[in-house]
Amino acid sequence: MATADKVDAVEEITEKLRNSNAAVVTAYTGLSVAQLKQLRRSLGENAQYRVVKNTLTKIAAKEAGFSELDEHLKGSTAVAFVTGDPVEAAKGLRDFAKDNPALVIKGGVLDGKALSADEIKKLADLESREVLLAKLAGAMKGKQSQAAALFQALPSKFVRTAEALRAKKAEQGGAE
């Protein structure tokens, strides 16, 4: 029989899954409370790291439409609910796992698509959204300046050619 606390917990996890851009499932066995606190800080402001009960999370994931999380909900489980840049959170988890091998990234979801642990690590290797946008803007600005130089070059080349022809005609006309 479901208790009110369990129903509330399922509703809370369901809401967090629905409001998150991404969710990363991890195993945390062997981490101290101080290490978990450090991990929460390393994830940034746009991610919330919560220790969850597997059974309740399976129910919540099913209600939220993320049944692909079921395979990762075994053993000690904690979930990073990411509401901001998923790359930043993935980097925080990856970097923390390098220093603390007890943290194991199991998998997750990103915008409704299931991700394996390897895919999350690849996501962490990406540059942040802001850096990618800055590079895109720089590339677009570069292309625009190249186009402007090309459009400016055509009339000036025409003027130089016309001036050269005028000078040649004047030279030929003056010699005869």
Automatic annotation (TrEMBL):
Xref: InterPro entries: Ribosomal_uL10 (IPR001790), Ribosomal_uL10-like_sf (IPR043141), Ribosomal_uL10_bac (IPR022973), Ribosomal_uL10_bac_type (IPR047865)
Pfam hit, one: Ribosomal_L10
Cited SUPFAM superfamilies: Ribosomal protein L10-like
Keywords: Ribonucleoprotein, Ribosomal protein, RNA-binding, rRNA-binding
Organism superkingdom: Bacteria
Similarity comment: family membership: Belongs to the universal ribosomal protein uL10 family.
Protein name in the entry: Large ribosomal subunit protein uL10
Organism phylogeny: Bacteria, Bacillati, Actinomycetota, Actinomycetes, Kitasatosporales
